[in-house]
């Protein structure tokens, strides 16, 4: 029901319907104090601005004000005096007086030294908020010195305070004399006709810091900011500097307003029309006068240069407004049903046309309307025609003011000649009611949007359908030409805004920014700006970004060319750290892989890769892991990926890796393929052991440990054979007597025996023997 923040900013007090007051630690998020003592709903809470006093005040609908001590956590005093709900409390500038306001139409001043009532000020209004005016604010300076002197003569130091309540007006009081110093002449609160008295006026108010004025909140969720000014007579006045609408309700229609289209007139599900300033999106002013919901709105600039607004409502009337004076200039009465469509002249002629649920069209004239009209005049209808068999939903006047097109729920659109409202052609072809009609700005054709989810373009001359556009998934509620009739935009009950090209019959863009039906679509004729609104109570502004998008694309392309050349220069200079950074900026994973592959073939690859990785930011490191995940899935690229991944995990700590956004998903993609690669490597290593065993058994390769023993044994055998030959001269003589051919045969036979003894030789060893033999023969 209420909240208050401690001056230190560390504590927050909340008031609830459970009759309790809780104090919370803002940093820790836990409850520090629990105050229970009220017998009703606690409506307001307030901390004492002096931190040394440690006091908390709370008001309730049990008509009491409780004073709590934050140190002892107990109630210090109970202030009785109100006869209704206490809605607001405030403290004087010196902190010695407490002001309490309630719905019993009084403001009571309490002395905080003895907790006694010093004075009661009658306001004759159920109050919702009271705010104290400090001496150094613009409000105090605008009150004038005379009020301050009169306050000192009363014997009680005057406290200036502001009250707001059910009447919807702001009043300023002096506690010394208990009189009202200022009262607004009229309320700025827009009151609906169906609202009861309990829902009128303000809900709360607060003084804004830094002398920004007084902020008042209405019951219909509007925020009004007032600024004080001093009139030449020395009298204080309040100016509404800003109006912020918290909730628009359902938006049914809107139109751009002004010669430069800097305002937007919005018709919501209320009796008022709100005019927004597009620069600040604050509600500039409100047009109030209709007694029931406004259904349609249109704007124009008259021949005299005045900006006019025309509205149609469920109260069966149309109203003509002047945007500068914000007054109603004329009222047209005559329809027997709700006015659901309205259209101004396109050539600044003094007439407009209205269509109603009574199935008739009326042409109204405001010729001869004077500028100094004090009371709305009665507008007269120049022509009336029974146009359709069902409700009329939309009207459009051609750019030359010669034709009028009307769309109805009877599934037809009719073209009429102006000013006599004579039927020219009937456009038939839709299967559901027509919600929107509009003439092309350049061609003799019209566009219609229907509940059958289609948009059609018609030839005015013979009423034939030229083109049909399909794409919406629900009823199309609005369609309007843009870019001199070459394109058009449409919106519908599916919450989508679509951009179409007439020549190609294609939807080139779809925008989804609404959560409900899009009832309203406004197109700026000069600014080419769009505005959409619908059932989600949201107004969206759209700008033509074609030129800016092309310029951005050209700049990106130019920057990419320069960066690409810089990348090639870095590769030529072997500056791999800079090259890797540029490759990340250009988002070229293939070039990045080539750089890492080159680094892996370097002798000091580890150091160079670490230098390159140290220069990466966290976002670039995340992109690198994403690239490594993709490279790791391909057998041809996995070796480089594993090498870089190993260096990343060696360089980056686990704490930093965990902080990377989306690291869990990246690791899930890396682990399975890494396990597969390592399993394949293990299988290959195990296979090499079998190969070594086989080759060793074939005496192709021999263990390194037995090499020296074999050499020693061979040399020993050769020495022993030489000794034997020396001891056996007969054998030597016998060998000498043998012819050379027999000697060769003997050597060959001995070689054959050796080969049989040692088994099959390898291909490599045989080739070596053959080469030796060839060398011997030569």
TrEMBL record:
Region (Disordered): 729-765
Keyword Transmembrane helix attributed: no
Compartments it resides in: Nucleus, Nucleolus
Keyword Ribosomal protein among UniProt keywords: no
Comp. bias (Basic and acidic residues): 731-745
Annotated ranges, domain U3 small nucleolar RNA-associated protein 13 C-terminal: 565-698
Chief location: nucleus
Example GO molecular function: U3 snoRNA binding
InterPro entries with a match to the protein in the record: Utp13_C, WD40/YVTN_repeat-like_dom_sf, WD40_PAC1, WD40_repeat_CS, WD40_repeat_dom_sf, WD40_rpt
Biased composition (Basic residues): 748-765
GO CC annotation, single: 90S preribosome
Renumbered ranges of WD repeats: 1-27, 35-78, 79-120, 287-331, 332-367, 385-418, 427-468, 469-510, 511-542
Record PANTHER family: TRANSDUCIN BETA-LIKE 3, TRANSDUCIN BETA-LIKE PROTEIN 3
Protein's name according to its UniProt entry: Guanine nucleotide-binding protein, beta subunit
Organism: Parasponia andersonii (Sponia andersonii)
């Amino acid at each position: 029901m209420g909240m208050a923040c401690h001056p230190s900013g560390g504590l927050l007090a909340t008031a609830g319907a459970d009759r309790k007051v809780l104090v919370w630690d803002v940093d820790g998020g836990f409850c520090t104090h629990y105050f229970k003592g009220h017998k009703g709903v606690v409506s307001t809470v307030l901390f004492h601005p002096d931190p040394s006093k440690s006091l908390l005040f709370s008001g309730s609908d049990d008509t009491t004000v409780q004073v709590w001590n934050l140190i002892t956590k107990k109630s210090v005093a109970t202030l009785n005096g109100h006869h209704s709900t206490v809605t607001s409390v405030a403290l004087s500038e010196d902190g010695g007086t407490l002001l309490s306001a309630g719905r019993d139409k009084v403001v009571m001043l309490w002395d905080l030294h003895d907790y006694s009532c010093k004075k009661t000020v009658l306001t004759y209004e159920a109050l919702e908020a009271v705010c104290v005016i400090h001496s150094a604010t613009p409000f105090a300076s605008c009150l004038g010195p005379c009020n301050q002197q009169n306050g000192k003569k009363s014997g009680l130091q005057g406290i200036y305070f502001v009250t707001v309540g059910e009447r919807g007006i702001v009043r300023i009081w002096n506690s010394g004399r208990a009189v009202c110093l200022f009262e607004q002449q009229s309320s700025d609160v827009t009151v609906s006709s169906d609202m009861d008295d309990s829902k009128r006026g303000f809900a709360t108010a607060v003084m804004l810091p830094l002398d920004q004025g007084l902020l008042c909140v209405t019951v219909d969720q509007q925020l009004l900011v007032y600024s004080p000014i001093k009139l030449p007579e020395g009298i204080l006045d309040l100016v509404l500097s800003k109006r912020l609408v918290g909730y628009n309700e359902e938006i049914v229609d809107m139109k751009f307003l002004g010669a430069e289209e800097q305002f937007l007139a919005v018709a919501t599900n209320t009796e008022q029309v709100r005019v927004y300033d597009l620069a600040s999106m604050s509600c500039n002013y409100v047009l109030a006068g209709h007694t029931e919901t406004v259904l349609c709105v249109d704007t124009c600039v008259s021949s005299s240069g005045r900006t006019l607004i025309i509205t149609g409502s469920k109260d069966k009337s149309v109203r003509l407004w002047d945007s500068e004076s914000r007054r109603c200039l004329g009222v047209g009465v005559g329809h027997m049903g709700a006015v659901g469509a309205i259209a101004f002249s396109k050539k600044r002629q003094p007439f407009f046309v209205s269509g109603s649920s009574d199935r008739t069209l009326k042409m109204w004239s405001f010729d001869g309307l004077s500028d100094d009209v004090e009371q709305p005049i009665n507008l007269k209808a120049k022509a009336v025609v029974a146009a359709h068999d069902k409700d009329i939903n939309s009207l459009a006047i051609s750019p030359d003011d010669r034709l009028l097109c009307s769309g109805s729920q009877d599934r037809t659109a009719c073209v009429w000649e102006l000013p006599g409202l004579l039927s020219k052609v009937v456009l038939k072809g839709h299967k559901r009611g027509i919600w929107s009609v509009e003439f092309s700005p350049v061609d003799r054709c019209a566009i219609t949007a229907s509940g059958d989810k289609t948009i059609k373009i018609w030839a005015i001359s013979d009423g034939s359908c030229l083109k049909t556009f399909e794409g919406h998934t629900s009823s199309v509620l609005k369609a309007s030409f843009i870019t001199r009739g070459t394109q058009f935009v449409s919106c519908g009950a599916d919450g989508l805004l679509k951009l179409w090209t007439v020549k190609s019959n294609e939807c080139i863009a779809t925008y989804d920014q609404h959560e409900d039906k899009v009832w309203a679509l406004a197109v700026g004729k000069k600014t080419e700006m769009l505005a959409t609104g619908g059932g989600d109570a949201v107004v969206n502004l759209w700008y033509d970004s074609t030129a800016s998008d092309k310029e951005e694309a050209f700049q990106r392309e130019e920057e990419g060319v320069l960066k690409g050349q810089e990348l090639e220069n870095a590769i030529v200079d072997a500056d791999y750290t800079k090259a890797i950074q540029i490759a990340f900026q250009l988002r070229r994973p293939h070039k990045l892989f080539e750089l890492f592959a080159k680094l892996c073939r370097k002798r000091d690859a580890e150091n160079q890769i670490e230098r390159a990785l140290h220069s990466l930011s966290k976002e670039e490191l995340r992109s690198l892991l994403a690239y490594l995940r993709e490279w790791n899935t391909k057998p041809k690229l996995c070796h480089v990926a594993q090498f870089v991944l190993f260096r990343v995990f060696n360089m980056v700590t686990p704490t930093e890796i965990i902080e990377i956004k989306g690291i869990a998903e990246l690791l899930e993609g890396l682990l399975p393929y890494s396990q597969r690669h390592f399993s394949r490597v293990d299988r290959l290593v195990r296979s090499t052991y079998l190969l070594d065993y086989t080759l060793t058994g074939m005496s192709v390769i021999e263990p390194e440990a037995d090499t020296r023993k074999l050499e020693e044994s061979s040399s020993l055998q050769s020495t022993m054979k030489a000794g034997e030959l020396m001891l056996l001269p007969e054998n030597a003589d016998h060998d000498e007597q043998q012819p050379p051919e027999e000697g060769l045969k003997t050597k060959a036979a001995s070689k054959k025996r050796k080969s049989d003894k040692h088994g099959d030789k390898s291909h490599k060893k045989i080739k070596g023997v053959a080469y030796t033999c060839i060398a011997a023969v030569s």
